[in-house]
Amino acid sequence: MRDTITTTIDKAAMALGGGLILLGVVGLGIVEVLAGPPYGAAPTTNDAGEVIATPMVDANLRVFLVVAGLVVLLAWQVYRIAATAGGEDATQRVEMTAD
Amino acid sequence: MATNTANPLAEEFAFDIGGPVAKYWVALLRVITGWYFFHAGVTKIIESGFNYAGATGYLQGMTGTALGPLPVWMANNLAWLVKPGVPLFETLIGLGIMFGALTRLAAFGGAIFMTLFWVGNGGYGHGLVTGDFQTLLIFVTLAALAAGRYYGLDAVLEQTALVERHPKLKYLLG
């Protein structure tokens, strides 16, 4: 079966799903780097365990965006499974009279 | 996917079964993996410039690993290369993978890094297949699939006259 992407729904799902994932990982990652330390997604603590610096963007928000993107892609594939025609038996049954 | 096994350099590599979805996902996987390395490299440059002392310390800590004395020897004798090389190559590998430029060369470099991380970080409590090993496999997969040909710059670079004249460059592109 050759896969084809033709509908607006397909294109929208690919753009939205991938866009959310890239926004969470790369887009806000660039913001985090430009905003200065900490460059990771977790707060920085000192030896006493006290938080001395927090990321500009909450890591939970970034994770939520990525999960939302994955959910969009999952929903899109479920839709495609439901919307794709095929699988029916194309063989016609014909009544045959016995000799 | 279709490949020409008689002459792999002449292949018209293409996904037949996965189609556009496979191309889309390989490109997405490429950008995220590239970002992982670019972030690791560029933040080291911001914080330490091209003199990342943590690199030699990490290698010196790799005693008693499967790589034998090699990491410690590298730390003691190749510090001039390792200290600037780790942030520089992580950044360049990340950019190459993200934009799909010289993808196979970049993926080879990423696989070298991930092999050191996999061995150095250890943590085999749940088996040999760790997160580092999975990332190592992703780099190999990106090279095997010629991931740069899908929404990447290698799709353009491979059409240039230079690559047409020297098809072996596709071992570095793709």
Fill in the keyword field for this structure:
heterodimer; A: 99 residues; mainly alpha; two-stranded antiparallel ribbon; 2 strands; 53% helix; elongated; B: 174 residues; globular
Describe this structure in words.
The complex is a heterodimer of chains A (99) and B (174). By secondary structure, chain A is mainly α. Chain A has helices at residues 8-34, 59-83, and strands spanning 44-45, 51-53. Helices cover 53% and strands 5% of the residues of chain A. Chain A has a two-stranded antiparallel sheet. In chain A, a hairpin with a 5-residue loop joins strand 1 and strand 2. With 174 residues, chain B is mostly helical. Chain B is globular. At the A-B interface, helix 1 of A face helix 1 of B.
Question: Sheet with the most strands of chain B?
Answer: none
The spatial strand order of the largest sheet of chain A comes to 1-2
Radius of gyration of chain B: 18 Å
* Alpha-beta content class of chain A: mainly alpha
Terminus-to-terminus distance of chain B = 15 Å
Low-pLDDT parts of chain B are none
SSE order of chain A: HEEH
User: What is the chain-wise order of helices and strands of chain B?
Assistant: HHHHHHHH
* Number of discrete helical segments of chain B: 8
Number of domains of chain B: 1
Shape category of chain A: elongated
Give the overall average pLDDT of chain B.
89
Q: Could you give a short description of this structure?
A:
Chain A is mainly alpha-helical and 99 residues long.
Show the helix and strand layout.
The complex is a heterodimer of chains A (99) and B (174).
Chain A: H1 8-34, E1 44-45, E2 51-53, H2 59-83
Antiparallel strand pairs in A: 1-2
Chain B: H1 19-48, H2 53-60, H3 70-77, H4 79-99, H5 103-121, H6 131-144, H7 154-157, H8 161-165
Helix pairs in contact in B: 1-4, 2-3, 2-4, 4-5, 5-6
